[in-house]
Amino acid sequence: MSLIKLDKKSYEFNLNQIAIKAGGFEKLICVFKDNAYGHGAKILAPIAKACGVKFIAVKSEKEAFELKNFFENILILSHRPHGDENACFIYALNDSSLITRFKKHTRIHLKIDTNMHRNGVCLEDLDFVLKELKKHPLKLEGAFTHFARADEMDASFFIQRKKFQRAKELLQKQSDLKFIFHSFNSPALFRVAKLPDDELCRVGLAQFGYTNENLKKVLSLYAHRLSSRMLKNSQSVGYGGAYTAENDLKIATYDLGYADGLLRFNGKGELRLANGKAILGKMSMDSFSCEDLGEEICVFDDAELWARFFDTIVYEILVKLHPNIPRIVI
Ligand SMILES: *Cc1c(COP(=O)(O)O)cnc(C)c1O
């Protein structure tokens, strides 16, 4: 049985650190999309709730319904309006041409395009949106933007912040109600000394111990031994015989493969487990082989190693972990 262990103390520690940085738990929107970045949304939800998290963001209505009982406010980021929106949730309005497709009086946060050009309404179109919202009333409760390069040390972050500041002023002029504004994701949060007073932060990956070295990794992935054998000198293991023993070597096969959401190791180069031992040969759909390291082995407790090997980002390594892998809190 492969297994994901979630470290409760580390998760609580990270949430508290982020809340301090953000100015309190009331200023925190925890991004729980995609099964809480592969960690397990339903397992972490009660822990986040007990810490004081009241507001989360998810991808879809399906995810929102699953977490409805844990949080007061749930923002749905990637919603395609269908006219039957639920009054319990807040929906991102990602495109001004879709206003009339929402059910009237749906609670929305307006996405502002401040230069990422992925979703949202640009500053020039704000007037149009506000006029449309008079004709087809939706409950505008807030606005947000997303940084395209918060992790790159160039000027674009500051240009986007400036544009968002302008959008906040334009919007707030239209209403006596206090809007909720948010823009800071994980890398952005750790670039500033303090969050702007009028903003919540919207943090995903940092919760799980990445993007800042003071945070603690929450997830570790384990595999269990299916079988073991002596691989004799010059014998090969697995598809294509990609690894050949140069001496007799006791090897074992463990119950985790690319069907479990790992990126497929093709046997080239050295992909290492948490203890530094290399995976031997090509990874199979449901298993991989390596030196016999006992009943249970830690595949990784820092996804950064795997991200570097596969030339990708930790987000991808984590989010692909299959929901069927059992998860326990330790
Ligand atoms: C995923 C996502 C976030 C969280 O980003 P992190 O870098 O994980 O903190 C915030 N906002 C939006 C719109 C997102 O899609």
TrEMBL record:
Entry keywords, A to Z: Isomerase, Pyridoxal phosphate
GO terms for biological process, alphabetical: D-alanine biosynthetic process
SUPFAM superfamilies, per the entry: Alanine racemase C-terminal domain-like, PLP-binding barrel
A Pfam family this chain is assigned to: Ala_racemase_C
Organism per entry: Campylobacter cuniculorum DSM 23162 = LMG 24588
Record's keyword annotation contains Iron-sulfur: no
PROSITE patterns tied to this protein: ALANINE_RACEMASE
Protein name (record): Alanine racemase
EC number: 5.1.1.1
One GO cellular component term: cytosol
Chain sites annotated for binding substrate: 118, 285
Modified residues (N6-(pyridoxal phosphate)lysine): 33
InterPro entries the UniProt entry points to: Ala_racemase, Ala_racemase/Decarboxylase_C, Ala_racemase_C, Ala_racemase_N, Ala_racemase_pyridoxalP-BS, PLP-binding_barrel
Entry cofactors: pyridoxal 5'-phosphate
Domain Alanine racemase C-terminal: 218-330
Superkingdom per UniProt: Bacteria
GO terms of molecular function: alanine racemase activity; pyridoxal phosphate binding
